[in-house]
Every structure is written in C-alpha cells, then in structure tokens.
Amino acid sequence: MILQALYDYYLRRQAEADPGHRLPAFGLEQKEIGFILEVDDGGQLHAIIDTRQMSGKKKIGTVYLVPKGVKKTSGIAANLLWDNAEYVLALPDVKKMDLARSKGGADEYLARLVEMQQAFRDRISTLPELAQNDAGLRGVLAFLDANPADQVARFAAHAEIAASNPVLTFRLVEDTALVCQRPGVAPHLVAGAPEDETGEEADGVNAMCLITGDTLPVERLHTSIKGVWGAQTSGANIVSFNLDAFNSYGKSQGANAPVSQAAAFAYTTALNALLARDSDQRVQIGDASTVFWAQKPDALEHELAALLGGGDNPDAHTLQVKAVLEAIHSGGFSGARGENAFYVLGLAPNAARISIRFWHAAPVHVIAERIAAWFDDLSLVRGPNDPEFPSLFRLLTAVALQGKADNIPPSLGGDLIRSIFTGAPYPTTWLNAAVQRCRAEQEVTYMRAAAIKAFLNRSFTTSDSQPREIHPMLDIESPSTAYRLGRLFATLEKIQEEASPGLNATIRERYYGAASSTPVAVFTTLMRLKNHHLAKMQSKGRAVNFEKLLAEIMSGISDFPVHMNLPDQGRFAIGYYHQRQDFFTN
C-alpha cells in the first residue's frame, strides 16, 4: 500500500504541466552539484564554476538534473558524467590522504584513485556512438585523457575541491546546459546506465512486480532514501535484504520482494522528493520525519506542514489555520475534493534501515476534520503574547527538560502525530511530561496547560454526546475535586501576593509539587496561612471577596485527597491555570 501510493504519486508528478515541478524521468535524478568544469571540445579546461550558495551555516550546491547515481558500496562504482573529485580527477581527498599516510597506505589509496577515475571514464565509453560524437562528450573524454588534476590545479578552486571532495560535472564552454543535458547526449543516458545500480552486472531475475503486476526485471538493490532525520547521511533503505537470515526460498536481495527497476525508481524518487530539504510536504516532529501527499492535487498537502509546524510568521500561521477551519465549516472539503485520498507516512531511523513509525490513509475531509479537532483540543484561554494556534514543536519543547529540543522524550513526537491523524487518544507520555515539568519548575505555562487539556479531553470523550471535561476558560461548575484544588491553590497564592506585595517567592515555589500530588499533606497548612494573609490585607472589601471565592471553591471539595493520580494532577494544573488567568483578566 505504501509503495503503491508513492508510485502513483510519482506518476502524478511526472504528468505535471510545470517542468519545474515535474519529477525526473526514469534513469535521471536531481543532484546537488558543487562545481562545474567548463571545457572546450578539445578537452581544455577554461573555468571552474562554483555553484554553491550559503544555506544556514554551510554552502549547498545548485540542483541539476543528471543521470541517476549508482549506489556506492565498498567497491568502485562510478556515476555517469558526474561524481566526486576522487572519481572525476583522481584527486586525493585531504582527510583521506592524511588517514592513509598515518596507516602507511598512501600508495594503495593513490592506486585506488587511478582505478576510480578509469571506472568513471569507462562509464562514459559505454554510451552509444551517436552520443560519443557529441562535441560536449568529446571534450569530456579529451579532458579525462589529459591529466585533469594538473589542469584543475591551475585554478583557485583547486584547494577547496581537494579539501571537500565535492560533486563535479561538465559543461561545454559558452553552453547553457550541462554535457549530460545536451540534445546529443541526453536521449542515450539510460542506454549507458548499468542494469544494477551498484554498477555491477544484474543477475537477470524476472518476476511479477509487487507494485505494477507486470513481469519485469527486478531491482536487486533499491535506491537509498535520504532526508530522514537521524539516519545515515548517505541514505538508508525501506526495502532491503542485506543478511542471509532475511532471504527466503533460495532468493537473494530484491528478489525476496520483487519490485521492477522502473517501479523501484519511481517510489524512491517520489519519497526522496517529499523528504527533500526544500519540500513543503514534510514536517520534522521529534524523531519522526513525516511526509504527506494526496492522490490528486490538493492545497492541503502544501499547507499541512505549516499548519502543524507553525512556520516563521506567527500571524500568517494564524490566518492559515483560520482559513482551513473556515473551509471545514463552510463545506470547502465536501464533494469530490473531500473524498480525495490523503496519505501520511512517518519514518524513523534504524541504523542502515528506515522503520515505518506510522502510516495513515484517509479522505481529505477526514484529515481536515482531525486537524480541526487537534486545534479544538488545544483551545485555551491565553495571555496576549501566547499564540492562538500553538505549533507542535513549541508544545513539545514546553514539556522537555530545559525547553531544549534534544530533551524531547523519545518517540513522543511520532506518537503525537499519529494520534492527530488517526483521532486516537494522545500518548500518556505527553501528559506525564507536561505534569512533571509543571512540578519540577513550579510553573503552569500556556503550552503545558494546553497539552494537558488536550490529553484529558481526548481521553475523556469518546462520542459527541458526551460533554467535554475541560473547557477553554474557567469552569466554576466543574465537579472535579482535583480541578477545584488547583483553583484553590491559585486563590491562596493570589491572597498571599496581595497581602505581601513584592515577594521573591510565593507558596507556588515551595508547595506546588506536594499540593498537586498529595494535597492532604499541605492544604491544611496553607489554609491556616490564608487566615494570616487575609488579616494583613489593607482592603477589607477585597478580603471579603476572597472569602466568598474560597467558599465557592470549597463547596465542591468534601475532603483533601491523600494522593492524586496523573490525570488528576493534570486537572489540578488546569484548575490552577484557569483561576490565575481569570485573576489577570478581571
């Protein structure tokens, strides 16, 4: 189901009218190229073009459409008309050379570089004679035969190339297209590609493709998937059989789960495009890299990441969420649009593999309704500087130690995303983390209160006929003892603040943890302190108002519990937060 949906998405993107949005055809890929070597048809190097631009703290090469790369292994496997400086120039990588010298293997490394460059030239030689007659290809072959490393050494970019071993390709002088994109070369590139992407001879296995149903040559090793946070930088695989224990019925590698070469190219190209650095169809939440797409084009697949992630502009994010909510209420997701299939795929790293954290398929209208339910669960009275629609990232860091992303509880982000899209209860680890942060820091923030409210309401109500347990604003009718105790604690703190203005610390810093978990141990003491604080108030009318409020709160509390479980500690936090917000607004 997953591979089929990705395959269909590839076909959809291949049919795009806009060439800039179209995915590469079979045998091609989008690749970041660091430097372009400009040569003439006689092989003379005229210029080295640095295509890189600053992105964050490092330089990133410009993306070009080039022949699909081989899967690099411990052996020698060259790409067609592009590769790193070791393959193209036989130029030693500075770090690798230093390491080889330290181990006494410098000569072996240099000999291997010669073999690598020969493999690069041999790949080009496999192209048909029509391609070999192209002026650009003649120039590349002549350059490779004329001490290319010495030619590059004449240019200032030589030091940078030797230090970083970047990806290189070729362009004919005064031409606008790369050599591999020239009309005389491009049509022949697939013919020059090896049947097996490692550069080895394919074993010729034909089988029924699990995706298309056609009997075709099977892809032995699938293309690596890149862009999954925490996975190997060289990429990892969803489909792989790299140990004998994974083989069945005498089959090996891809023959265990036969996928044709074209279908494997399609699904891996689609997934890599969704995971690309500049993709607006992915969101990183905790350790889960989540991508989403629709069966047919829909604006939601380009809006969803911003809806959940928040984006860089808070005002734009708020307007975007409101627009989606308005579309739901006005029927914008009804009819054919609402029935369009929508897919959500969560991926997590697992050594050289990628594990599927979750997979969810549902009509667009269901996805939109669940996004609306998510923000409804979070809806809570807030201060003037708190966002109306908090982002997932801020909600997660709010419950992490020191507010750092690195300290977000493992798997929480992925579990939370899964709950959002499936409508299932939110993970208990979310409630536990929020309550523990409130106790550890003696502070119930807007983000933590929103997380607690969302968890409790999603867990409490299982049908529309049941009332919601916690309202966005203060609920003076709530029968919950824990909620009322939270209100009581907030009121006692407010009395202390008004009786003794300018205090460095209140009862919250000293008693919040015990009051929220073992109320009987501290509330008797706090109630005695309350009498002292009321007596110190200069305004007797204010003291009377507090007495009335305390009486209203206490009317729903029969006794102080010996111990409160985790959900009740959450209700305590919400009661405290609601009452404090009510004091601020009134």
From TrEMBL:
Q: Which one Pfam family would you cite for this protein?
A: Cas_Csd1
Q: Which CDD domains match?
A: Cas8c_I-C
Keywords noted in UniProt: Methyltransferase, Transferase
Cleaved signal peptide residues: none
Gene Ontology molecular function, alphabetical: methyltransferase activity
* Gene Ontology terms: biological process: methylation
Q: What is this protein called?
A: rRNA methylase
Biological source species:
Serpentinimonas raichei
From the broadest rank down, the organism's phylogenetic lineage runs: Bacteria, Pseudomonadati, Pseudomonadota, Betaproteobacteria, Burkholderiales
